[in-house]
């Protein structure tokens, strides 16, 4: 019997329009009526995730920044936070500036970018939080601990950077695509899977009692941890390879379809 559903947000719960479909809401409400806990686990910062938690009337813990921060549903009490080592952050920023790659720094619930460009405008479609344009990030960041770095560029350029960073920091940071044009970097000692386990332990729930649904590389760890790992129909191929079940795409109510098939 399943007791918890862990849901990614972008590409899973919502599409590019930022809307939770009525069909998805109905399926989630049906699961809640069966006393199943719904946990939102996203690369977004907590403020953006909480908008959807409120829409679904959830009051569970919120996992943000791919597991780098866990906060209560009131956004008041931080249960966990893990930042990137400052020296590594400095080198990541240097690489981005040298290669002219747009980036967003996540410092807790604050977001910083160097300037407004088309890439940052694209990112704003995936976040409800304000992005502070602060000029040269290599000068600015030193007064802030950084929980996540998001790089925004075409996939080929990001693949090159990913390979270079993996050679230098594979033991210190996770480097994963959430979208082909979004490369996310955060501390190696956390992930969606690690935080899902911590939250499950907190609630006394075993991995076999969990369904985890996602579409990006940053979802693989929780898909592998859960008793039932579900990949969206629109998921990256390496995500589908790790899943126990592949549901319909987000645009076809993939979350609702998975819930109905697995629970009812």
From TrEMBL:
PROSITE patterns tied to this protein: COF_2 (PS01229)
Domain of life: Bacteria
Single GO MF descriptor: magnesium ion binding
InterPro entries named in the record: Cof, HAD-like_sf, HAD-SF_hydro_IIB, HAD_sf
Pfam family, one: Hydrolase_3
GO cellular component terms, A-Z: cytosol
Protein's name according to its UniProt entry: Cof subfamily of IIB subfamily of haloacid dehalogenase superfamily/HAD-superfamily hydrolase, subfamily IIB
